UniProtKB/TrEMBL annotation:
PANTHER family: PHOSPHONATES-BINDING PERIPLASMIC PROTEIN (PTHR35841). Belongs to the phosphate/phosphite/phosphonate binding protein family. This is Phosphate/phosphite/phosphonate ABC transporter, periplasmic binding family protein. One of its GO terms (biological process) is transmembrane transport. Keywords: Signal. It comes from the Bacteria. It comes from Listeria grayi FSL F6-1183. The lineage of its organism: Bacteria, Bacillati, Bacillota, Bacilli, Bacillales. One of its GO terms (cellular component) is ATP-binding cassette (ABC) transporter complex. Residues 1-22 form the signal peptide. InterPro entries: PhnD.
Amino acid sequence: MNSFKKATIMALGLILAIVLTACGGDKQASSKDGYEPKELKVQFVPSQSAETLEAKAKPLEKLLSDQLDIPVKVSVSTDYNTIIEAMDSKQVDVGFLPPNAYVLAHEQSDAKVLLQAERFGIKQPGGKSTDKLTDSYRSMVIVKKGSKIKDLKDLKGKKIATQDVTSSAGYVWPVAEMKKAGVDIEKDGIKTVQVKGHDQAVLSVLNGDVDAAFVFEDARNTVAKDVPDIFDKVVPVYFTKPIPNDTITVRSDMSKKWDKKIQDAFIKIGKSKKGHDIISSVYSHEGYKKSKDSNFDIVREYAKEVGQ
């Protein structure tokens, strides 16, 4: 009897918690048309050291706040999965998500893509920017100059620096194309080392900690200030097919009114000198254009190729 009572009380408590949550909801979700924030929580995923990234991104708070007329809080997640979970649990309103992370967020919680970043194209050899804006980029496999690794098949049995497994440039694209070339990252004696940020991947190759690394094209620019001869010491041996650029994604219940306000704010910020300087230093973004979910069908194909 005591066990029955205990189970009943626990069940009633759970039901009550659910009812209270449903009735109370998010205090900021004041509109029947969807969530309308009183404070906007924006989160970035680390493409370079988290401390550096947060310092660069922090000034975006004031620019966004000025555009939206509400307080804005900017933070950096520990990895891609953390921000996906945070958006699912409604702890984060806006996420700067690379394409694979966006697809996972959309599948998990119906997160909505609003914008796609534009970057200048990259000219090889040399890794310098062109003056042409593009909504896609490539991943590249880099090695130390003089390495015996010349193509994907040479990666068998080697030690490779990667990003999180949901990173398009730092994992999915190179792994999928390795598989197509007959190289299985899980079965061919390859050891992977996950590092935080593409700058760290470049330095891992430079310092001899790994034999190769997967990075976005051309991540060597992220360390060129501190290592001026990085382009001579670390070289690419493979470039992937194009990857859709990063997204600005919002939680699933964001109202259409706020979808548009956020879109307009980021587009306007990207066109201002101060705003452009921030987004360029954070992710090498040059601006933003409106996007749609179907743009990322290619991402779903590659994710399936690597078993995601």
